Amino acid sequence: ESEREQQQRRSRAAMAKTASKSAKAASSKASAKKSTDSTKRRKKRQETFSSYIYKVLKQVHPEKGISRRAMSIMNSFVNDSFERLANEAIKLARYNTRSTLTSREIQTAVRLLLPGELAKHAISEGTKAVTKYTSSS
User: Fold this and answer.
1) CA atoms in the 13 A half-sphere facing the CB of 128
2) Sign of the dihedral through C-alpha 73, 79, 82, 83
3) pLDDT value, residue 137
4) Full DSSP string of the chain
5) pTM above 0.85, yes or no
6) Which residues contact 79 (CB under 8 A, 6 or more apart)?
7) How far apart are CA 118 and CA 137, in angstroms?
8) Of 85, 81, 75, 70, nearest to 51 (Cα)?
9) 77-80-84-85 Cα dihedral, nearest 10 degrees
10) With contact defined as beta carbons under 8 Å apart, do 32 and 40 qualify?
11) Residue 111: what pLDDT?
12) Which of 11, 88, 90, 123 is the most exposed place for a label (fewest CB within 10 A)?
């Protein structure tokens, strides 16, 4: 599936969400009178990388902050990068008729997708993380 098709799919999903939100808002106003405190629903948690991005920012520039909009952009960037790496690793596993993603597929995907020095740093950090994980368990 090409990037353009993925973008079109995402924009259609976003439009569908917007339409369903307005419908939900109308129905929730009507049902708000009916609901009691014991039947309140919890808001679904939105998983983001915000806390991790913030921790890295403070390691690099302790005196700097980040706006909500910039954090949203960074979160989108991390999600997009993750998706690309995962898709590339899946392709590599399929080429080799493997049903399990290993660190080798991830490492090769990083080499293919990230440019030069960035790939080298990412691989060294990934190797360090895997070594730390295997030694702790």
Assistant:
1) 6
2) negative
3) 75
4) --HHHHHHHHHHHHHHHHHHHHHHHHHHHHHHTT--GGGPPPPPPPP-SHHHHHHHHHHH-TT----HHHHHHHHHHHHHHHHHHHHHHHHHHHHTT-SS--HHHHHHHHHHHS-HHHHHHHHHHHHHHHHHHHHH-
5) no
6) 49
7) 29
8) 75
9) 60
10) no
11) 96
12) 11
- At residue 16, the pLDDT reads 64
Residues 124, 130, 133, 137, CA torsion sign: negative
Tell the residue number behind the tokens 């490492």, with chain if given: 107
Residue with tokens 């590599």: 92
Instruction: Provide the token pair at 31.
Output: 């049902």
The amino acid present at 93, given as its one-letter code, is: A
